[in-house]
Specification:
Length: 676
């Protein structure tokens, strides 16, 4: 997915050196998929003759250069308004860690003003051919997460634990409202991966290892973002959604990011295609091609899957978008020259910084006949069709559209309340020995662990920055950390709460302790692992650097033994020696082996990556004034939990299936009903 800065991207790519990048590109004439029945047609809104006639009129007036411009997307740091006037680019994006003026604290007004400038440039009639508004896309993957002060909802793995389609639909609606308030038209969400190996660093972007859950919640997300076909489809306050990443990114061998999916076609379609069948039915207008390969062929060059399966058989008549320079990974291509991706079925290149050179090379290929005019016109038609359906061709400037400029929508109290509800519904209770939970707030409560008061840790990757790092709590105005939520609940209940950040300082007396620990924030590249052993992350920066160096064959000593990596276990042991019950809250983007943590905890809650509203954790941990739970645990595991760090991937269809906790596991305060 989009990322910044370019220098960092290049360095990370060099370090990671995904083997899949060296695989052969799929030729445009690749054989069609074998199983016609595996790719059912599910498009709900066929093109209207009047719309197609309007598009015909635009195409007839467009110059060749303007047509090529429409199939290119550039990054806002590499595109000026003057560039839009000259090249007629079809779309823009802001990558992760890219903001107006490269200012992390850019206000909603700053975002909207930039959107206006780009729109006005794209509509300047002085350029070649008809003026066509530019689209702006962003990674609003758990709320409008690039914008300071936005509501950050729990990541998809947590929403999979909640497994509530109506909740997900409401989250999509709230996210769309915050996005349109800043003048942006389009989000690159939802992710429809069905992760099968939790070592993959993007596991938390998937709703579940179950294709049924992914299909159900992916459809709900699209309906929330875009509205429902035939009802409020792409009306006021809605944004374009993106089904991504087509296809099989969650099933690569060994969980390798951008790796090779070796499944047969039936499994690819049934398991990894489930979310595409449902989101096409919901009317999704854009599909993003994946970085991964299928049986050795990169998806950005896979004609059989992009064109035959997706467009012809499934009936997708919207736009296929490439991922961040994904075309470059085809052996026959470079970052600035790639007819193969267009011939395979990519309709718009995501070429963040090299779009200008790609424009020139694509123009040459069309003139030389290497790219047929029919294929270029089809790609442009799809881009224009999406813009027309989104109402963009008749829209006013971004600041004059419904909800635009309403900065109060960013982090709106109703959105934050919805996010807090999502936290409550997503928490999974894995252990509650002796019924230690719910806790009475009328006691001395000790909260231990830096993660309890670090919003970046509870938010995870794709939170203000690409990796979710290089931030502090000030970058999340209006958010509530887990510690602050506990403090508020205990104080309101008549008890006292104290925070201890971990380390060597003595632990103060307490009646009960809440231990908060988990993974540091990460996104793609950084997140891949060799095993599923949890490592306490007091030295996360050191471990990330060590892994990067190890990939280059450079040995690095990793601290262990009595070092800081086991501080949370030492704290739990000390507290137990004092007779203090320990409630553990585990923050993670995937299930990890935490055998010792389970053993040292009286209760343990998988809290995933809850986002900006950490107060939702306290809602479930503490009883009300009557001593009864205020809310019950509804969350159930969306992924199977491993027995140990090196256990082979555990999914219900695998044999033997012997997880520590199976898919769907979760305890409740209320015992399940029994029969008569």
């Amino acid at each position: 997915m989009p990322r910044l800065p370019a220098a960092l991207c290049a360095a990370l790519l060099a370090l990671a050196a995904p083997a899949a990048a060296q695989e052969a590109a799929a030729p445009a004439e690749a054989a069609a998929p074998a199983g016609l029945e595996l790719w059912p047609r599910s498009t709900p809104n066929p093109p209207l003759p009047s719309d197609e006639a309007r598009i015909d009129g635009l195409l007839s007036r467009m110059s060749l250069s303007a047509k090529v411009g429409q199939i290119l997307m550039g990054e806002i740091q590499a595109v000026t308004p003057e560039d839009l006037r000259r090249y007629r680019l079809g779309a823009l994006l802001n990558g992760g860690g890219s903001w107006p003026g490269l200012n992390k604290a850019a206000t909603p007004a700053d975002w909207l003003a930039l959107a206006d400038r780009y729109y006005e440039a794209s509509m300047d009639a002085a350029g070649e051919g008809p003026a066509i508004p530019v689209l702006w896309g962003t990674d609003a993957v758990h709320g409008h997460n690039n914008v300071r002060g936005a509501t950050l909802f729990p990541h998809n793995i947590a929403l999979g634990a909640a497994n509530n389609p109506e909740l997900v639909r409401q989250i999509g609606r709230a996210t769309a409202r915050e996005v349109v308030a800043t003048g942006i038209d389009w989000t690159f969400a939802p992710t429809l991966a069905v992760p099968q190996d939790d070592r993959w660093g993007r596991t938390y972007e998937g709703f579940s290892e179950s294709p049924d859950i992914v299909a159900r919640l992916g459809e709900a997300a699209v309906l929330g973002l875009q509205g429902a076909p035939g009802e409020d489809f792409l009306g006021a306050g809605r944004v374009l959604a993106t089904a991504k990443h087509f296809i099989g990114d969650g099933g690569t061998a060994n969980g390798k990011d951008q790796g090779d999916n070796l499944a047969d076609e039936a499994e690819l379609a049934r398991l990894h295609g489930a979310g595409y069948r449902s989101t096409l039915r919901a009317g999704v207008q854009t599909v993003m091609a994946s970085f991964n390969s299928w049986q050795g062929r990169k998806l950005h060059g896979h004609h059989a899957l992009l064109t035959v399966a997706l467009k012809q058989r499934m009936g997708f008549d919207g736009m296929v978008l490439g991922d961040w320079n994904g075309h470059e990974q085809l052996k026959v291509c470079s970052v600035d020259d790639c007819p193969a991706a267009l011939l395979a079925g990519v309709d718009m290149f995501m070429a963040p910084h090299d779009w200008k050179a790609l424009h020139q090379s694509t123009l040459r290929h069309v003139k030389a006949g290497r790219i047929p005019m029919e294929r270029l016109d089809d790609a442009v038609r799809r881009v224009l069709r999406v813009k027309l359906r989104a109402g963009l061709l008749d829209a006013k400037r971004p600041s004059e559209r419904p909800l635009a400029g309403q900065s109060g929508l960013i982090g709106h109290p109703e959105h934050r309340a919805l996010a807090r509800r999502a936290v409550r519904e997503s928490l999974v209770l894995l252990k509650n020995e002796g019924g230690v939970l719910p806790l009475s707030p009328r006691q001395r409560v000790l909260v231990v662990g830096q993660a309890a008061d670090r919003i970046a840790v509870q938010a995870g990757g794709w939170s203000v920055t690409w990796q979710g790092d290089q931030t502090d709590n000030a970058d999340f105005p209006g958010a509530t950390s887990i510690w602050r939520g506990i403090q508020q609940a205990v104080t309101a209940g008549g008890g006292s709460a104290e925070f201890h950040g971990g380390g060597a300082a003595p632990l103060p007396p307490a009646d009960v302790a809440i231990l908060v620990f988990g993974e540091p924030p990460y996104a793609e590249f950084e997140g891949d692992r060799g095993d599923l052993d949890f490592e306490a992350q007091g030295g996360a920066w050191y471990l990330r650097a060590a892994r990067a160096l190890h990939r280059r064959g450079i040995p690095v000593p990793v601290p262990g033994g009595d070092g800081h990596l086991e501080w949370h276990l030492r704290a739990a042991h000390t507290l137990h020696e004092r007779g203090v019950p320990v409630v553990s809250v585990f923050l993670s983007g995937r299930p990890l082996h935490i055998g010792e943590e389970l053993a040292h905890s009286d209760a343990l809650v998988a809290a995933w990556l809850p986002g900006s509203e950490g107060g939702g954790v306290a809602d479930l941990l503490f009883a009300g004034g009557d001593g009864k739970p205020r809310y019950d645990f509804k969350g159930r595991l969306p992924f199977s939990w491993p027995q140990d760090a090196t256990q082979p991937p555990q999914n219900p269809q695998t044999s033997p299936y012997t997880p520590r906790f199976p898919l769907g596991y979760g305890l409740s305060y209320t015992p399940p009903a029994t029969g008569p």
